[in-house]
Design a protein that fits this description.
The chain has 407 residues and is of the alpha/beta class. The chain has 14 helices and 13 strands. A 7-stranded mixed β-sheet has the order 5-4-3-2-12-1-13. Strands 6-7-8-9-11-10 form a 6-stranded mixed β-sheet. The longest helix is centred in the first third of the chain and has 36 residues.
């Protein structure tokens, strides 16, 4: 705690300094384009946008102006990161051009225009990646008897982050995928809402979610952002009204065929006296002869889930860094930050997420859904008796259009 108190002022000073550096470059480029700009005219709106996201969070639900400021601040996160990466080499190039005797039209204009063009390409590409979800298909064997069920088709999504940026328009893409693929079961692995529940309610996103249908039901777990919003009970009630059951350290058995367990997010460990159950205690009461599907928002301690008896672990949270080069960081932070890994007898899947946090920009990452077919090879019958619909029972273990990292 003492280290954190010491580090926070240093982080704030560093952030302010980097913003001044970015602002200085931006003002210089704008003045090259349009002429002198008074300091107050530039710096006041610039700093409002630079700190717009935390300001908007403090005043959440306070009206359209603060919502707009929060959205602008979210997109500024991407501008900030790429500004820190692109501006130093651009400034060096500008200095070299000036030392070589070139005028401002070259030593300011050329590097500045180059940075602007790169940013434009990154933002356009990142927006396309964010708003055009792909569906990754996995066909996985589970050597258990599922009550005569030959296979189970699951449509899984994590990190919808429904809020001021990701809304009904993107959510309808999920509805369309579910209607087209007709899964037997839908699983939502946390961060369905983006902190504040107000835009979720105001835009009636619960009604849109209510259009999701699957014969075996729709189940969800909480992510860290539901905890950050502090309105979990209101969200759980809205989800229930939409036909979605949120599992909070709970497990259910579906038609005597398979079991679904959902953990509270790791954030719960510091959110109150109830905390969250160890995965071993959560799965201990379950029947080990039946398939066990586990959702845990953050992909941590995967080996413990495998030892506890999970056959499938579904997680999200990482966004695969969302925009490069952040994926290099998540790769170091998590045993599995995206894709598939076999751990003992357990299949682990981590989704990069369907929505976005902060700006709707993805680079080296895509908005995605997971279409998972579990084939139960321990069943005495290969046909799909009593199965309400979905994938046909299959043969050997394969991964289709998915990323594999077998241990």
């Amino acid at each position: 705690m003492k280290r954190m108190l010491f580090a926070l002022p240093l982080i704030l000073i560093l952030y302010i300094g980097l913003n001044v550096y970015i602002g200085w470059n931006l003002r210089m480029f704008l003045e090259w384009l349009a002429g002198p700009i008074p300091g107050a005219v530039f710096w006041i709106p610039f700093l409002l946008v630079a700190f717009g996201f935390p300001i908007g969070r403090i005043g959440r639900g306070a009206g359209p102006v603060l919502r707009l400021l929060k959205v602008a601040g979210a997109y500024y996160f991407a501008l900030f990161e790429y500004g820190c990466l692109l501006l130093p080499p651009a400034d060096i190039a500008g200095w070299l051009l000036r030392e070589a005797g070139y005028g401002a039209s070259i030593h300011i204009g050329v590097p500045g225009a180059a940075v602007a063009m790169v940013l434009l390409v990154l933002f356009i590409t990142g927006s396309i990646n964010a708003w055009s979800p792909v569906v990754r298909e996995y066909r996985l064997e589970v050597p258990k008897d599922a009550g005569g069920l030959g296979s189970l088709r699951i449509l899984a999504a994590s990190d919808l982050h429904l809020g001021n940026i990701v809304g009904n328009r993107h959510l309808r893409r999920l509805i369309g995928a579910a209607e087209a693929r007709k899964p037997d079961l839908i699983l939502l692995a946390g961060d369905v809402i983006d902190d504040d529940i107000e835009p979720f309610i105001r835009n009636r996103m619960d009604e849109t979610l209510g259009r999701l249908k699957a014969p075996y039901g729709i189940y969800a777990v909480l992510g860290n952002h539901e905890y950050y919003g502090g309105q979990i009970e209101a969200y759980v009630r809205r989800a229930a009204d939409a036909g979605i059951r949120v599992l909070r350290d709970e497990a259910v058995t579906i038609d005597g065929c398979f079991q679904i367990a959902g953990r509270k997010d790791k954030t719960a460990e510091g959110a109150g006296p109830d905390g969250r159950l160890p995965v071993s205690r959560l799965l201990e009461p379950l029947d080990p002869k039946l398939p066990i599907l586990l959702m845990d928002h953050q992909p941590l301690a995967l080996g413990e889930a495998a030892q506890a008896g999970a056959d499938l672990l579904l997680s999200g949270h990482t966004h695969r860094g969302q925009f490069a080069p952040n994926h290099l960081v998540t790769r170091r932070l998590f045993e599995l930050d995206w894709g598939y890994k076999r751990i003992g007898g357990m299949h682990a899947l981590v989704s990069s997420g369907f929505g976005t946090w902060g700006p709707a920009i993805r680079l080296a990452s895509r908005s995605e859904l997971l279409d998972i077919t579990l084939v139960f090879t321990g069943s005495q019958r290969s046909e799909n008796r009593d199965k309400p619909g979905g994938a046909e029972a299959g043969g050997s273990f394969t991964i289709e259009d998915g990323q594999a990292a077998n241990s």
